[in-house]
Amino acid sequence: MKPPSVQLLRAFRATDCTRARLNTSQQTSSRRHISSKAPFICHVQSLKSPGKQTRAFTATSPPQDESRSSDRGPASKEDTQTDFGTMNVLGNTPAPTTAIDACLTDGFHLDNGLKISGGSGCILVAGEAFSWRPWEAGERSNSTGKGRMINRKGQWDVEKEAWGVFDLVWPKPGPFLPGHGTRSPNHITLTALIDLLILGLGPSTYPISPETRKYINSLGIRVDIQDTRNAAAQFNLLATERGVGSIAAALIPIGWREPK
Fold it and tell me: Long-range CB contacts (< 8 A, 24+ apart) of 7-14?
């Protein structure tokens, strides 16, 4: 008698495994006390010696947790829940009246309705706004370099007279300086203690000259250099957070171009 073919043995093996699975699933559904992890055993005859040797393997069906559900029930109406998307730590803090509302090519619009136009910049200090044209300050008003603020080294450089408004600030920030210990009775004063000046240099950013930085630092004021749009946004944020008494801004219009 010839041994059965390989194809016939494969068909018998598939049939036996299928019947074993069906019997196991029926026993599990009829008897609840039997665990869903009950294994089923399939006997397979060896292909080398049919009818003599058998081997068995055990397989485990995946667990089925009938108590698990994706339904979380009705939405909670408790007031203790936090919506992080609507959180704003400065939401109840009013913006300063000198906050920048819009940056124009030839000026600025402030939050209090004030409009600065005509190509002038602005200085914002102690809650006040001043028109500012540093390219015409000092000796540059009558020199051939009128209208220029970038020196031969590519540095932003203006005269000391461009910062005259900071002489009105009282008390003077920083260490004691000669002439800074008393108020001048012939000038108005701005009550503030400025420690940071945000400098907006127009559409681009330039390094400032050592002389300009040294003079600003001699007033006890730190300086932060940015383009005008970013400088205005930073001033609005810091002035709202810390108050206008410690933050000042000096801004050049975004449409400023150096004369050729």
Answer: 9/45, 9/47, 9/50, 12/45, 13/42, 13/44, 13/45
